[in-house]
Write a structure and sequence with these properties.
alpha+beta, Uridine Diphospho-n-acetylenolpyruvylglucosamine Reductase, domain 3, Alpha-Beta Plaits, 3 domains, eight-stranded antiparallel sheet, five-stranded antiparallel sheet, 11 helices, 29% helix
Length: 383
Amino acid sequence: MTIEDPALDALIEQVQAARAAGTKLDIRGGGSKAWWGEPVATDTQALDVKPLAGISSYEPSELVVTARAGTPLHELEAVLAAQGQGLAFEPPRFAVNGAHTHGTGGSTGGGKGGGTVGGMVAAGLAGPARLAAGGLRDHVLGVTLLNGRGELLSFGGQVIKNVAGYDVSRLLAGSQGVLGVICEVSLKVLPLPPATATLRFDLDEATAIRRVNEWGGQPLPLHATAWWEGTLVVRLSGAAAAVQSACTRLGGEAIAPDMAAGFWTGLRDQHDEFFIGAQRAVQLGATLWRLAVPPTTPPLKLSGEQLIEWGGGQRWLCTTAPAAALREAALAAGGHATLWRSKDRRPGVFTPPKPPLDRIHAQIKQAFDPDGLFNPGRLLAGM
């Protein structure tokens, strides 16, 4: 990507003009995650990154792809799939305005949604495979960022072992666009697994959590887990011999490949039965929370309907319990609670950082965006 690029030049000019005029900017891509995060201040001007699209470079043999921020996520995944590769962390693909991509959890289609590469990084989300592959930030190699001074900065690179600026690139994952405009991203990609199998077990919550953590400590090709309403579902992925051996060793009920693919797609894109039901409950006054806790945490004594992923590390809870109770329970377990879906966001979407982390957050924001141009309030109120 070069400075002569008209789409990039237009973004730079808009940032510089906004800084001169004291105008705040609302960074927008595909619009699929406009609901995610705190509400952006209303007195903002839209900064559209969709024209900044396209795959800049792709070296399948090097397992690295570089794409511009406005590139639709489904287009990037299609290019990777043609080479038998993919984004191992399975980023969720939401439909525009947060609607569900499909009406039921039985669909086997991936769903194009409205997500872009830049929005994927800014949101920092991962799907079921995070258990085995890690999160988005573990796959970011380099980023080009337009800061609040209208300067184009590059961090990291296109080499997996490159460490220069690596931490800054990772810092942008999940930053909600408050540090600047993500213009281009280099990502590590991985081959699609040659074999996959999904097993079903009838287990209570405590037993399911214990079992998946025991299995996680063994040489098994464990790729994803999900527990809901007394059923544990486990996905195994890897070499065919390893997957077959694990199936024999673990037992359980094998789920047909088409049905399994539909289930994991629904879970990844949040259009399966649990999330559709939670969406309806939210309209009636409930709140859907996302709790991040140590995987071995015993069942949390909280009311509501729960779905557990990532070997126990991610727990979705749809409940009418007060926000304070959720955050206290998560904190006591050594984790935190994030408000995911709610008609009332007054409790705050993200858990506010405590001293001295709050000061560090403010200093980082000041360094990248000294005039507070980008996405005011989107990550934390007052930022």
